[in-house]
Amino acid sequence: MKKRYLISPGPTPVPEEVLLEMAKPMIHHRTSQFSAIFAECAEGLKKIFCTDQPVLMLASSGSGAMESAVTNVFRKGDKALVVNGGKFGERWGKICEAFGLEVVWINVEWGQAVSVDAVAEALKNNPDIAGVFVQGSETSTTVAHPIQQISELTKNTDTLLVVDGITAVGVYPMPMDEWGIDIMITGSQKALMLPPGLAFISLSEKAWKRSESCDIPHFYFDLKKERKNLAADTSAYTPAASLIIGLRVVLKMMLDEGLENVYKRHDTLARATRAGVEALGLKLLAPESPANSATGLFVPETVDGGKLVKDLRENYGVTFAGGQDHLKGKIIRIAHLGYFDSFDMVVAMASIEMGLLKFGHDVQMGAGVAAVEKIVNERY
Amino acid sequence: MKKRYLISPGPTPVPEEVLLEMAKPMIHHRTSQFSAIFAECAEGLKKIFCTDQPVLMLASSGSGAMESAVTNVFRKGDKALVVNGGKFGERWGKICEAFGLEVVWINVEWGQAVSVDAVAEALKNNPDIAGVFVQGSETSTTVAHPIQQISELTKNTDTLLVVDGITAVGVYPMPMDEWGIDIMITGSQKALMLPPGLAFISLSEKAWKRSESCDIPHFYFDLKKERKNLAADTSAYTPAASLIIGLRVVLKMMLDEGLENVYKRHDTLARATRAGVEALGLKLLAPESPANSATGLFVPETVDGGKLVKDLRENYGVTFAGGQDHLKGKIIRIAHLGYFDSFDMVVAMASIEMGLLKFGHDVQMGAGVAAVEKIVNERY
Questions:
Q1: Tens digits of per-residue pLDDT, B313-343?
Q2: Residue B346 and residue A344: Cβ atoms within 8 Å?
């Protein structure tokens, strides 16, 4: 007998009330019944994105929405400034290249946030940059990039700011309209507490205007067509209906809790987790600009992080994410975005303490948990 | 947003696979389809009770099965020796008195197990005792009574040994046939990991024989009638069908895990919990003969235990049981019977540490959790 705990930065746990709602008998998506749900979701999403623009719902993963941002707005040969500080920054560049954009890379050490000065300099050196592509939270390195400061550089220019907010939206404030973000994206299986399969994208007026001159072919990801359909409370193609039905409940839960409280909960859990890691004498992957979505930590050098993560998953029943590329086997990523509460972080830290002890690392049992407890106790 | 944790000694958490099974569309109970399930449950229950006798399934709480043991087997005026070391021992006596038996009480201090010598002496002083009534585990005091030793006193005599195993069956070995227990009872919402509503009872040959001379009126709880129906894979009255359907899955889970492993898991969690309590400098309610079903601890004298338990439930989302009668406000009972795993005990201990800190008790945060971690780590 083994209970299972999903503490990875996507998929994240789905609340029971959402699972039960999605388990109800299927309804048809071309009905007034479904349209009412669709319309309610559209309204809720605007609040989550902090925008007056429509937020489009796509039946795809977040990567599909990333692609749609490129193929619906830019032109072949456009210059894209891409912040590459992890797997997902790299993905922005790959998508841009796949559709004929010219990429100017800003390479950032994994675990660091991009420097605003580096972005400013690249924009100065390349006055014809059509768009800056960046992550709000770079999931692979648990870093938060300085989106608000970057938006100051782009908002009164012709350059579009394109933000992958897949592990940022719903975690900490990233008000699209107020900051002047031109394209913002998120996915269902992160802070939105749903299974994977839905992506969300919203465009500023400036981005919609730019899309008029777009020359990249696209069919399934047709944002203008989706916008037109959304105005009629429906979608261009068959929507992922059960996920939309779950989304209605998720949005109600988040708005009932209050966005400020949602952000505060994430902040508390993130601070607690970081304090726990440091109390165990372990090094944080992103000590300077950590995201509140997940916390990366370096496993001790004597421990094979890949084996530890596997053992925690298979024997202890606790699923974390490990590292990718050159961080493979070196880090653990503890998630705290979405449906997480204080005791999830207690379980996360306890399992890491137990796993480290099992793998021969001399760890002071309970020290990480104690640090977590002291901070999450603020909530009660 | 608050996640909820049920760490009380009944109801206990119900596994997801059981909940999903019970959520399937209702089937009719007078069908071959249901009879097959009923028969499978009857076979499984014999393994859990460690008996060759039929185990009857009653649509009632455990107290209903306790009543049926008295009303189906004994005679008005029979002398009952009742071990009264808590709320449930007291209940045996009350049931016996309600149906005209004469009760000889053995009063035991709450938190202590009955002394075998005291039972032997009472039997010696009252050679006409028709039955000894005792709990395997006295839930209100988290004590395990010495059933095997008591059975040595009754098994070659005319006296019946009647054991309320409601929080003992499926927690630690209590082999009915091998020990010579004459009547054994349990309920669904304890180690059997189901919602409340089902009770189980099995009678030895000696008890069935005695039931021939029973003169207490009964109708709904008619064990002979149930035995006859069970032989035909059905029940005398409408069975609690969804619970029986869930029971089939529960029994499969327990037998797949293996009874030895089930007992070992309970033992590990119980030892870990007791070590955690002691590491916090708190006193155990039953230090000498603790049951592996639940652990009672005294809250510090400066803390109102009633308020603490209420705050843990309402604010922290963690439900424990408090104390009853003269222990009201003085103790917390942490459950570990049924669907509990290592990290449930971590959560239990962390929440108690956090709650004690909040209530002004100077507790070394993490100390209890560390003690739990060290012991449960044996499992991995």
A1: 999 999 999 999 999 999 999 999 999 999 9
A2: no
